[in-house]
Amino acid sequence: MDYDKLIQSALNEVQASSSSENLEKVRVKYFGKNGLFTKELKSLSTLSTEQKKVVGVKLNDFKNDFFSKLSIKKDEIENYEINKKLEEDFVDPSLPAREKNFINSKIHPISHTMNEITSILGNMGLVYEEGPDIEDDFHNFTALNIPKDHPARQMHDTFYLDSIEDKYVLRTHTSPVQIRSLKKKKLPLRIFAPGRTYRCDSDITHTPMFHQVEGLVVDEGITFSNLKWFLESFCKIFFKKDNLKLRFRPSYFPFTEPSAEVDINYKKVSGKITFGEGNQWMEILGCGMVHPEVFKMSNIKTNATGFAFGMGIERLAMLKYGMPDLRDFFDNDLKWLEHYGFSFFEKSDLSWR
Ligand code: PHE
Fold this sequence. Notes:
The protein has 353 residues and is an alpha+beta fold.
């Protein structure tokens, strides 16, 4: 057997390989299970001691040489293949962003505040829900324990949509989402529902369209103290004031009993308002324990209890970011947006503490 010729051709084939598959084929051809040299190595035992010494050393030396050249070639090929892939998939990260668009556009304070509220309530374990802007009379009123001719209906300055019978309205609050969630979901229930609401009212503190966020938590053993803790935690995080005080004032909503309105403390020094200090109070939301009638109207028979709350998003935004006039929110005044809007690149402070 002419080993030298075979050895030379094996090494040449390693050198000439240009892909991983090719290289693997060469390895199998010479050192696979039935490889040319595998067979030779196996048959060494049939040789005489003299021959074994010569041929054995030669073959073993070659084997080592073969595998070290194979491994060098393998690295070479892999490097080449990776570089080729990188070149093909090349992205130039140093290209400038479309700077002009980013600088000119701002996130509207309502969107920003909604994002903040969504992030905080989400972290507190509530799940996002939504309901329609065009609501039927049942969900907006009746199911919330506000039957026809109830005086609370007058309080709502409702837009009635006569064109679609008289049973449809533009929802006057986000509370109908309470009913929709109770009707479709199993207990326990922990949801929040931000969105648009409408009332036929317009002055410095009212716009016909505004935003609310509703919260509803129903489970066995839920009490008013859970509600207090929840709202206190939310407000401290939202206003970033650990010492913020909340005052719960008895109030009336047909769909909660007992009901309360919640104020936060502030002080005003030369026109500047600071929250969490001083002993003046500002109302920020309505809340209470879910009225049994609400469960009944949603076809829920349960021993569970629940709390609900509703807050005005514009109001929260105005207080947190010091915006003086509600109507500016919807004027599409670019100068106002430029001033009060939020940059896309602004560091987010939405994280849960
Ligand atoms: N829906 C009420 C409002 O618009 C707020 C509220 C929600 C009160 C939930 C109690 C519970 O004024």
